[in-house]
Specification:
By secondary structure, the protein is mainly beta. Helices cover 0% and strands 67% of the residues.
Length: 144
């Protein structure tokens, strides 16, 4: 690929609890996470994990390179069994060179099984990266 055709470039792709973005576009990521542990206790704890809401913030940051103009970012979540969740489309505008865009997305979805979830990030039809998120279910029994 010619250097004059390069870009955009992925700078960052993470889940975190929260994000602070100042007026200059500088990010502070609070508690970067890539897994969660769901715990059930007691004699009535279900054998399989009950559904629970995932509340996190997804941060995906791009730098332009030679790419300019409007682009479409697609996020495609996949559960541990390979089932696709509905895709999320986000517009992105790039100005070229070292300029870029930070996509800060509140992420709310109900996870119904333990295992490794994947979140594929596309620009147009090009796959840029895959973000893993592992859910671990633990049953704790109380002995008397």
């Amino acid at each position: 690929m010619s250097e004059e055709l390069g870009g955009p470039y992925l700078a960052l792709a993470v889940f975190c609890e929260s994000v602070i973005e100042d007026k200059h576009g500088v990010l502070s990521l609070i508690r970067v996470i890539d897994r969660t542990i769901v715990t059930a206790t007691g004699s009535e704890a279900p054998e399989t994990m009950p559904a629970f809401p995932m509340n996190a913030t997804m941060v995906v940051a791009f730098k332009s390179g030679f790419a300019k103009g409007s682009h479409r970012v697609k996020i495609r979540p996949i559960n541990p069994d390979g089932k696709l969740f509905p895709e999320v489309m986000v517009p992105m505008h790039l100005e070229g060179d070292d300029r870029g865009q930070n996509l800060i997305l509140p992420f709310r979805m109900v996870l119904e099984q333990e295992g490794l979830y994947w979140f594929e990030i596309y620009v147009g039809e090009a796959l840029f990266t895959r973000m893993p998120f592992r859910v671990i279910y633990q049953r704790a029994s109380i002995q008397s």
